[in-house]
Amino acid sequence: MFPSVALLTLSCLAVAYGQQVGTLTAESHPKITVQKCSASKSCSTEQHSVVLDSNWRWLHSTSGSNNCYTGNTWDTSLCPDPTTCAKNCALDGADYSGTYGITTSGNALTLKFVTHGPYSTNIGSRVYLMDTSDSKYQIFNLKNQEFTFDVDMSQLPCGLNGALYFVEMDADGGTSRFSGNKAGAKYGTGYCDTQCPHDIKFINGEANILGWTPSPNDTNAGSGQYGTCCNEMDIWEANSQGAAVTPHVCSVQGQTRCSGNDCGDGDNRYGGICDKDGCDFNSWRMGDQTFLGTGKTVDTSKKFTVVTQFLTSNNSTSGTLSEIRRLYVQNGKVIANSKTNISGMSNYDSITDAFCNAQKTAFGDNNSFERLGGLNVMGQSFDKGMVLVMSIWDDHAARMLWLDSDYPLDKDASQPGVSRGPCPTSSGNPPDVESQSPGATVIYSNIKYGPIGSTY
């Protein structure tokens, strides 16, 4: 994900956060089926579920129902310091449909943008795929494999992001590494990504209250001293007007708490331990404005299939990741990815280190992706194993312009790489998106994974 503080927008108007386990609401994960395929294109159905990220959950005192966090402020009596807060505060179960607008049916997951619940109004959500035991996150190792899903984002306008991606979280949510974390994967703990987000309320089993600063433009968000970093593979960041596939890498393995310069904040964006920009393939940004969108080659007004292949140097799971290839299927037709049409670049149609280097040169961008190891490091992350994340969110930091409009705004849109989609630069203001498109939804369905060529 591109903006340095974009994840501040993933919030709920009446939630709080923590690491102990509450008992006031039973936690029941919505069920979803996933298919594991073989080289013969034979697929078996697995029973899985999804879990809501802990950052959305009600957090209250372990001895009652007093909020530990309200709006964007901590209760200092319950949370005088990070470790005491973790002991005093408990995460509770979630009403997935009524409070958060999260529903499943068979192989489909629906995420609604704005949900008016009985006690609160919820904005956006983030869920993780659980393994078949329902107690840990499903771990994916995708080298020399492909990952496929159907998506309906016809109801996602400018300024929204229906994101499906992988991050290098701990399978248990961090309980084995951090004694202060008693809730674990069952309650959606342990998030990290390459933006090293500071809005996560608990990191490494401790409350992120040191230096906590409420957000100036989001009444439900803030940021603490620490960020939480890890490798990230953005399979799909998209709305009806644009889409990008983007690997991001870090110099560390696994979920890592950062502070100071290591987080890469502000003017030190390219001095941290993670590559925040990534190496994106966005068809519009790469020079083809006819490929993806309403009524275009990939018609976003209708459901379609997204296939992502992770090819290795020796065509085996032990090889070095060398290429990320994208295909689409719609109306029974396989659609090859668009090709780049940028001066100074060859006609690339997939992500390779050569593509990334050429893109960074053509656009005049900082090549932190190459500096931190490129596709080889992304492949090492898959060797370790990554967790599937699915979300819907708006962007208080950059209004999603980096995905679907011109960005950054201080550059001429005619310069290569600045125009990223057809949305006006005035679009994406969260209050406008939330009031004008509360019924926006994204539907992910028919998830499959297996050897190259097995899932479509």
From TrEMBL:
GO MF terms on file?
cellulose 1,4-beta-cellobiosidase activity
Keyword Phosphoprotein annotated: no
- Skewed-composition ranges (Polar residues): 424-438
Write the signal peptide boundaries: 1-18
Kind of enzyme, top EC level?
A: hydrolase
Spell out the Gene3D superfamilies in the cross-references. Answer: Glycoside hydrolase, family 7, domain
Q: Which family does it belong to?
A: Belongs to the glycosyl hydrolase 7 (cellulase C) family.
Task: Note one Pfam family from the annotation.
Answer: Glyco_hydro_7
* EC number(s) per entry: 3.2.1.-
Under which name does UniProt file this protein? Glucanase
Name the segments for region: Disordered. Answer: 413-438
A single GO BP annotation from the record?
cellulose catabolic process
- Keyword terms, alphabetized: Carbohydrate metabolism, Cellulose degradation, Glycosidase, Hydrolase, Polysaccharide degradation, Signal
Under catalytic activity, the entry for this protein gives: Hydrolysis of (1->4)-beta-D-glucosidic linkages in cellulose and cellotetraose, releasing cellobiose from the non-reducing ends of the chains
The answer to whether the entry has keyword Cell membrane is no
